[in-house]
Batch of 2 targets.
Target 1
Amino acid sequence: MLYQQNEIKRLLGEKSAALVEAGMLVGLGTGTTASYFIESLIKRCKKGLKIQAVASSIQSLNMANEGGIPIYDMDKVTSIDLTVDGADEIAPSNDLIKGRGGALVREKILASSSKRLVIIVDDSKLVNVLGKAHLPVEIIPFGYTATINKLNKMGYEGKLRKKDQSSFYVTDNGNYIFDIDSPIEFINPEEDHKKLISIPGVVDTGFFFNLVSDVLVGYRDGRVLFRK
Ligand code: 5RP
């Protein structure tokens, strides 16, 4: 029997929520897969699990609030016990591309402040080389045309993400997302990241390097396997 993608995501959410222990400060990722984690965590909290959480987006914050998970102010946090988040692409090195959900900057702040970062992905997210889909880059609205011009001159073509036909997508930080076109194979993604963040107006890229502790991969046959 083959599982549908949302069923795999649900399994990933359940398995990752089982990693949470009483008393932990938990980082909540963003996206459909991370939502299944939050959903499972809400169920555990309703059964008596006592934790606190910080959220990587307003969407995840609202979901946790509605489910009764006590939310801690990220401005007061230096260390998170465990963060669980999804990804758009993951390489064999466990380097990632994130940000299709637009939360890459906050997600990276949580990830880089976490003692343990567990990434939950279905097997469609596994790639040999990063760059199968878009690379999201968060840029500030001020002077965005000049910023995009600089990106283009460096060889990074793409599009400013739209919310709808007449307006740009705006992140929780009040910024825009420039999605670098696919397919582009990032052979040296760390070099690309350095070049991109050197451009004034660029806040961060969706590349995540050396942050992952474990990956939980869900397969169509229903297996969910740990990968270090
Ligand atoms: C949001 C993200 C998401 O974690 C990523 O886009 C994966 O989302 P999904 O689980 O919906 O495929 O980085 O900024």
Note: The mean pLDDT is 97.
Target 2
Amino acid sequence: VQQTIGIIGGGQLGRYLCRSARALGFRTIVMTAEPEPPAASDADRILPGAADDLEMTETLLREADIVTFEIEAVGPAVLERLAAADAAGTVSVRPGAGVLAILRNKASQKRWVAAQGLPTAPFRVFDDAHAALTPATLAGFDLPLVQKAQVGGYDGRGVHILRSAADLERLLPGPCLVEDFVEHVAELAILVARGGDGEVRCYDPVALRFEPDHHILDQVLAPAVLAPALADRCRSLACATVQALGGVGVFALELFLTPADEIIINEISPRVHNAGHLSLEACRTSQFEQHIRAVAGLALGSTELERPAAMRNLLWRGVVAPAQRLPPTLPGNSARIHWYDKTEGRPWRKMGHLTALGDSAAAAAAEAERACQAILTLTNGACG
Ligand code: ADP
């Protein structure tokens, strides 16, 4: 009988998970409250419920054999219900409700990373920004610092870099943590798959570039240009971290490389990640197929990078506006464009992405840049 994979979250990550699941012979059911979820194009069924909707979770549990996630901000009560169902043996929850419970909140994630003795920036937790964190609370600390919302932040929302006294007057509301600003020469990411038998396989480290004002991921290059010994240290750190976490599926680590060649963990995601989009075109096994293989108990695929690649996010740069229909390919350019079929453009919203392959990451980046410029021209600067 055909097995059903339930996915909590229905964005573009969910779309590609559904596509891979279907190709491997699974049925998919996606739980999301979004009115126009990008995953709808590829899911067999959409359950209209947010990630903290207990009632809809019951429906999901009745219909799915396996439950997995494309977001980590899942409600604690939903996680408890999933943990109970997994323990009762009626469904496999993967990577695991316990792993989600640790990673969904940046404070509990940082505490876990520090308790494991893994390298991460020193931090302090503030449970109520208004009561506990004030400019005065930070008087004894050296700037720059980074304030992060404990839950619900994404794409740079929920991250506030404190460089000056004026920044201290604009603290984010709500439970947060404050950590040292890590001086870095590069930001890297590494994807790791952990199979049902505990086997761990790493992808090659990739280099991340962020849009400077909004901290939104803008470009990913594969492979990251790193001395082989450094790339190996990234791999061993990532594998050790995922082994320590346990859980089954694809994970992503975001890392800082310091001027002294230290590798510092910024963030761990218990899911496929924007940094792995280029695996669709550039790797033997895409991160999406790999995640489905892992959660479904199939053998993991090869993580080999077959061709150097560059991925660019296509961000909405204008005001709120209906999104135009844009072409899937551009004349004279080899980049593969993916649009997420979002009908409304909102500032800095991810509308799609594109991936170019090349003989080197630099050549791929140049081709991707030409494609982005062409899209900017087509949209009069609104998207690119
Ligand atoms: P998000 O949840 O939006 O991915 P991150 O924690 O990854 O949030 O932060 C977004 C970006 O902000 C990082 O990629 C990095 O550029 C910057 N940043 C975050 N934390 C630090 C830090 N401690 N030191 C320096 N830069 C940081």
Note: The CA atoms of residues 61 and 374 lie 45 Å apart.
